[in-house]
Amino acid sequence: MQATVKWVDGVMFLGESGTGHTVVMDGAADHGGRNMGARPMEMILLGIGGCSSFDVMSILQKSRQQVLDCRVELEAERAEGTPSPFTKIHMKFVVTGVKLKEAQVKRAVELSVTKYCSASIMMEAAGVELSHSYEIVAPEFK
User: How far apart are CA 96 and CA 135, in angstroms?
Assistant: First the structure.
């Protein structure tokens, strides 16, 4: 896997993945930025959410669950000072679907966070306290 990060201006950077996708990263005004993109630590948090969501959806689809929507809400705490790495991350999965089996949703979330998601496993190995929960939502039909 490869990526390139190129300085644009001030504290703005353009990241390009090895597959050719780009993302803008920028800092807050009090750090010289113009708030034109996500912060680098936000990108890490988004990556964890994307990685785990990918796994959850894959597991639920393989178990033939009729998922209509899936999102993960992430809350993170960081250490004081510099550097300020993550110390805690909580992932709450909100899964909407038709006749979802709670045992399947619970299993998918646990397998993702503890066994399959490389990003969350890497964070835990680095000493970040990870926690997770899930909520099942019935669809609203109009």
Answer: 8
pTM assigned to the model:
0.90
Closest CA to 34 of 25, 45, 46, 43: 25
The whole domain housing 6 covers: 1-38
Q: Are residues 48 and 101 in the same domain?
A: yes
Side chain identity, residue 73:
E
What is the reported pLDDT for 140? Answer: 81
pLDDT digits (tens, 9 = 90+) for 68-88: 999 999 999 999 999 999 999
CA–CA distance, 80 with 133 (Å, rounded to integer): 26
Going across the sheet that includes 22-25, the strands are: 3-9, 12-17, 22-25
* Residue 103 pLDDT level (bands cut at 50, 70, 90): very high
The verdict on 90 and 112 lying in the same domain is: yes
Judgement on whether residues 66 and 98 belong to the same structural domain of the protein: yes
- Whether residues 18 and 63 share a domain: the answer is no
